[in-house]
Amino acid sequence: MNKLIVSSSPHFHAKDTTQTLMLDVIIALTPAMIASVILFGFRAAVIILTTVAACILSEYVSRRVMKRPQTVGDLSCVVTGVLLAMNLPVSISPIIAAFGGVIAIVVVKQMFGGIGQNFVNPALTARIILMNSFPAKMTAWTAPMNHSFADATTTATPLGMLAEGSADAMPSYLDMLLGNTGGCLGETCALALLIGGIYLVARRVISPVIPVTYLATAAVLSLLLGRDPLFDLLSGGLMIGAIFMATDYTTSPINFGARIVYAIGCGVLTILIRQFGSLPEGVSYSIVLMNILVPLIERAVKPRAFGKAKAGKAGAAK
User: Fold this and answer.
1) Tell me, what's the pLDDT at 223?
2) CA atoms within 13 A on the CB side of 10
3) Which region holds residue 75: left if phi is over 0, alpha if psi is between -120 and 50, else beta?
4) 3-state secondary structure string across the chain
5) Are 301 and 255 in contact (CB under 8 A)?
6) Cα(86)–Cα(76) distance, rounded to whole angstroms?
7) pLDDT digits (tens, 9 = 90+) for 150-201
8) Residues 292-308: tens digit of each pLDDT
9) How confident is the model at residue 240 (pLDDT cuts 50, 70, 90)?
10) Could you tell me the pTM of the whole model?
11) Which residues cross the membrane (predicted)?
12) Cα–chain-centroid distance for residue 223?
């Protein structure tokens, strides 16, 4: 006799699995990966392959050691590896990149139970740890379109130039849209990220609520503080953070209202850190901080149960 499995509602069947969702994310990240190789050369591909291999191996070994069912096949570790690489400079040592992959999978993900159990984004948390452990190496930016790594030209990111007051050397909007600036592998080409975001929304992998609210909040606050909203949107990790990081299923809210509050918090923190913080960039810290607050946000912003009257109407009915 077959077992009767009883679970809470809603009860519906969907063809999507973790593997198909993760595959869609990988496809959406492909334009950014291609752009990074075009802009920074073969070493970008080396960094991407290194972090992906480190994440796959870390997940396989940790699941074996913890005597848990293997989850390598769901491709979530591959997504983590790609996202981590997209948040690293091309000049980073492959050893440090691999170390970041181990942190993301073993420490942030598997030690908390695996996929669906981690309360912060693994790739962003690994990046923050690497930033604090190897600050000089994590902020050594290489100029794009200079594929001879031995003679690579160092440069500053647009946000770094703004913090230093180098107004004359600021890149144009077109340069930032196409990625002709210094920065991490996946954050420079905003156009590639927008293409990936449109794909995810079209495939209904993500809802546009979080990225649109995040970007709109950042733009409005940037304008109120006398900054350049378009510059803030196109520079740094804001675009990749809003589209690929803040929308992570595990670490973002489920309810519509909670998503709005969460995204507004991400946008406000990002611009406040950029404006008043000692670091020119604040996307990673903003998203991780809001990840931590997600349970409180969902508790405070609860949807009304279907058919349940509001407190005032219930009292009047009596």
Assistant:
1) 96
2) 4
3) left
4) CCCCCCCCCCCCCCCCCHHHHHHHHHHHHHHHHHHHHHHHCHHHHHHHHHHHHHHHHHHHHHHHHCCCCCCHHHCHHHHHHHHHHHCCCCCCCHHHHHHHHHHHHHHHHHHHCCCCCCCCCHHHHHHHHHHHHCHHHHCCEECCCCCCHHHCCEECCHHHHHHHCCHHHCCCHHHHHHCCCCCCCCCCCHHHHHHHHHHHHHCCCCCCHHHHHHHHHHHHHHHHCCCCHHHHHHCCCHHHHHHHHCCCCCCCCCCHHHHHHHHHHHHHHHHHHHHHCCCCCCHHHHHHHHHHHHHHHHHHCCCCCCCCCCHHHHHHHC
5) yes
6) 15
7) 555 667 788 888 877 665 678 889 999 999 998 999 999 999 999 999 999 9
8) 999 999 999 887 766 65
9) very high
10) 0.88
11) 21-38, 44-61, 82-108, 177-202, 209-225, 231-249, 256-277, 283-301
12) 24
Which pair of tokens denotes residue 41? 């050369």
